[in-house]
Design a protein that fits this description.
Length: 335
């Protein structure tokens, strides 16, 4: 990659640390600053990864960190302020999905990016995940015909809402997981969602104020997608997530299963390691998160057009809001 982009990462939870790892392995990236509301944590990460500066807020990082671009990896419900701070400081932004948990916030971010002429890309990382990207390529080449219907299941074990996410009560399994599959549906069908009908069940996670699971039908002008996401798989499962997709088209069909990545390990327990997103090969970072970050940097350098736009992020939030509303009202929601 010709040239270097000075990058800062805001939010240093699991996903933020994954971005730090990925960016340190990209030749075109110069990771110059990190930020977290826990300043001690930011300083510890900076020291561990050899990052020159650590800050306690996105605003400080953008104003003092000397960055060209910012990766925002704060919790789902806390994207608005750091994204707006970065845009107001003239920085390009890669924000984690979901773009927001309120449609108004997503629309305001997109409008600010347009006004500033800045790149605002949403990290729908599965567009860079080889099996899902290959499905898109098959569609592009016309080998499958046009999509008729899609089924996607993406669920997590109880470990995620109970242990991994301290902020699970501030989001929902629809925003955290179904945002992935809703984006894949829009990407494959290449049409707007016209109507959403959804149901949910609440029992195990009632104390967190979030349903255990959602099922939603997204209706397009031609065809539909059935999405299912839950947060209550048993922690004894060999994988922290279950991710399967089937797409039936006029001239073919595809089946994707990423729960197993061709490896199973039996040691103190039996499990399926997940290496496709981010792993190391001879000490160098590799995986589809790295490719998403690398694509964003190429866009900042003017070498590519964003594969995911701010408008994609806005429409995704619109769909997920409709899923939650439909399940609450017990009737379809027109978009």
């Amino acid at each position: 990659m010709a040239g270097k982009v000075k990058v800062g990462v805001v939010g240093l939870g699991n996903q933020g640390l994954a971005h730090v790892e990925a960016l340190k392995g990209i030749e075109g990236a110069e990771l110059v600053a990190v930020a977290d509301v826990d300043l001690a944590r930011a300083r510890k990460v900076a020291e561990e990864y050899g990052v020159p500066a650590a800050y306690g807020s996105a605003r400080e990082l953008c104003e003092r960190g000397g960055v060209d671009a910012v990766v925002v990896a704060t919790p789902d419900h806390l994207h608005f302020e750091p994204v707006m701070a970065a845009l107001e400081c003239g920085k390009h932004v890669l924000v984690e999905k979901p773009m927001a948990t309120r449609l108004e916030e997503a629309e305001r971010m997109a409008a600010e990016a347009r006004r500033r002429g800045a790149i605002l890309m949403v990290n729908f990382e599965n567009r860079f995940n080889p099996p899902f990207a290959h499905v898109k390529e098959l569609l592009r080449r016309g080998e499958l015909g046009s999509p008729l219907y899609m089924y996607a299941r993406l669920s997590d074990t109880l470990h995620v809402p109970r242990r991994m996410l301290s902020w699970a009560s501030r989001t929902s399994v629809a925003f955290f997981l179904m945002s992935h599959t809703a984006d894949l549906a829009r990407w494959y069908f290449e049409r707007p969602v016209r109507e959403v009908y959804a149901v949910s069940v609440s029992k195990v996670l009632r104390d967190l104020g979030t349903p255990d699971a959602y099922a939603a039908v997204l209706r397009f002008d031609e065809g539909f997608a059935l999405l299912e996401s839950g947060w209550v798989l048993p922690e004894s499962s060999p994988s922290i997530f279950d991710f399967k997709l089937e797409l039936v088209c006029t001239e073919g069909a595809v089946h994707v299963d990423t729960e197993r990545e061709a490896i199973a390990v039996a040691a103190k327990s039996y499990g399926y390691p997940h290496l496709a997103k981010l792993h190391r090969v001879h000490g160098l970072a590799a995986g589809f998160l790295r490719e998403a970050d690398r694509h964003f940097l190429r866009c900042v350098l003017g070498l590519s057009e964003p594969a995911v736009t701010a408008e994609d992020g806005v429409e995704n939030v619109r769909i997920i809001e409709a899923v939650i509303r439909s399940s609450a009202e017990g009737k379809p929601v027109r978009l």
